[in-house]
């Protein structure tokens, strides 16, 4: 039995510049972190006394002997990466609902790939894990989106990700003190918009759009992190969100606009909707006192979290 987990992520700056149409022209810089909420995978070889079939459970249960019978494309293509002669039990579960803008699909993919690789006794390192997840989601399945989510899920941490024009990427810890990281954590909060949508159409609507301003904001934000200037960061955060909304009319809607207005009136100085848009979580940035007011007013919709720095990992093997 092997159990693995991969963290969800929060992207602060640079989101959408990680689409191939953008980084292939201008490169990409992303700033963000992973959090202590995870997608888990447990997997084992089925005892020979049990029926000779594979069983995979997620929101549904699939039983199959031939990989071509699998309905879930992410599971099907992840299984194809390994040549198991024995039958498997695989269970997928997570701390957060799907389609909420925290990179859940890629976290699931990385967790599953890592678990299967350990079961196969060929464990993937972080670089190969991210690249394999990118290949499955963006190349084989041709799902719309960028490549940051797979990298965050694999590496973990409060980092910058730089993507070159050829798609090669590097991950570096943000050059900030532990003390500032704590101050920054106290200056942000997540508010659940209580909406879920099929984000494929929304993600596709980001393609072939000019994202140079989003990239510029990420580079400016990097300097502000070094200077530990949260006040200026709040303004830049909102400017970057306004620029992102220009990419597609699908990114926000009337209900989300009203929630954003309410959050600003309560004290959010910087705000953005995470993910490709249309649903999920608002990330609010402000002084700790205003963040406390937001948490008090929107209590039922506040999602508590802490930063994490381990990324995808095996947490049990027997």
Comma- or semicolon-separated keywords:
318 residues, 9-stranded mixed β-sheet, 11 helices, 2 domains, Ribosomal Protein S5, domain 2, 39% helix, Alpha-Beta Plaits, 25% strand, alpha+beta
What features would you describe in this structure?
This protein is α+β, with helices and mostly antiparallel strands. It has 2 domains: 2-175 and 308-317, Ribosomal Protein S5, domain 2; 178-306, GHMP kinase, C-terminal domain (Alpha-Beta Plaits). It is built from 11 helices and 13 strands. The protein has helices at residues 20-26, 73-80, 104-119, 126-140, 148-155, 178-186, 200-204, 212-227, 230-245, 254-266, 288-297, and strands spanning 2-13, 28-45, 54-57, 61-64, 88-94, 159-163, 169-173, 188-192, 270-273, 281-285, 302-303, 307-308, 313-317. The strands form 2 sheets. Strands 1, 2, 3, 4, 5, 6, 7, 12 and 13 form a 9-stranded mixed sheet that branches. Strands 9-10-8-11 form a 4-stranded antiparallel sheet. A hairpin with a 5-residue loop joins strand 6 and strand 7 (169-173). Helix 3 (104-119) packs across helix 5 (148-155) and helix 4 (126-140) packs antiparallel against helix 5. The longest helix is centred in the middle third of the chain and has 16 residues, at 104-119. The protein is globular, with a radius of gyration of 20 Å. 45% of the residues are buried. The model has no long low-confidence stretch (mean pLDDT 93).
